[in-house]
Design brief:
The chain folds into two domains: about 80 residues, Winged helix-like DNA-binding domain superfamily/Winged helix DNA-binding domain (Arc Repressor Mutant, subunit A); about 80 residues. By secondary structure, it is mainly α. It is extended and about 75 Å long. The mean pLDDT is about 90. A two-stranded antiparallel sheet has the order 1-2. Helix 2 crosses helix 3. It comes from Microbacterium deminutum. It holds the Pfam family PadR. This is Transcription regulator PadR N-terminal domain-containing protein.
Length: about 190
């Protein structure tokens, strides 16, 4: 069974510390935009229950002096193995730059150290360099059939502005990837 993004997030958080569903919800409230994920507490609790049923997590009740007792979840060996398998699985960049899957992989593979991060950065960088396209032509399907020459000129200019936006965003991403590659390579070489 492949891991969904919420599975990766929960298993990674449980790898760092035992947590309640509420702890996971609070983490997502703070960091969900960075990993392209936001959810309701009910979904987190359903996912934790499913993880228990497949043996990726176990729970225990933690008695509390104030407030109700808490159900605390801990990752199992099977859960750790599933997460490790995901970390080791081939990363295939998404066609859309800044897709959150790259950020999720980068964030949750970091316990493996700089060599794993360097591998991810190099994969993303190679893909972005290969697929960088500048100045896409006007999509004639967006131009009304009866458009005046002025309207056609405007649609062409609009397409150029949009194409440049994508180009500059990808160029900025490539520059960051190149910088990260140098930094991570230095870390790997110094080990």
């Amino acid at each position: 069974m492949p891991l969904a993004r919420l599975d990766v997030i929960i298993l990674s958080l449980l790898t760092a510390n035992d947590r309640t569903g509420y702890d996971i919800h609070k983490w997502l409230e703070r960091n969900g935009t960075a990993v392209g994920y936001n959810t309701q507490p009910s979904q987190i609790y359903r996912q934790l229950t499913r993880m228990e049923s497949v043996g990726w997590a176990v729970s225990s009740v933690e008695e509390r002096d104030r407030g109700p007792d808490a159900k605390v979840f801990r990752i199992t060996e099977a859960g750790t193995a599933k997460l490790e398998s995901w970390i080791d699985s081939p990363y295939v960049p998404a066609p859309r730059p800044l897709d959150s899957d790259f950020q999720v992989r980068l964030m949750f593979s970091s316990p493996r150290g700089p060599a794993k991060m360097l591998e991810l950065v190099r994969t993303e960088l190679a893909y972005r360099r290969e697929h960088e396209e500048y100045r896409k032509d006007l999509d004639v399907d967006l131009v009304p059939r009866d458009a005046t020459p002025q309207l056609r000129a405007w649609f062409k200019e609009s397409a150029l502005v949009q194409s440049e936006r994508g180009h500059y965003m990808v160029q900025t991403l490539i520059a960051w990837l190149e910088s990260a590659e140098v930094r991570l390579k230095n870390l790997v070489d110094s080990q």
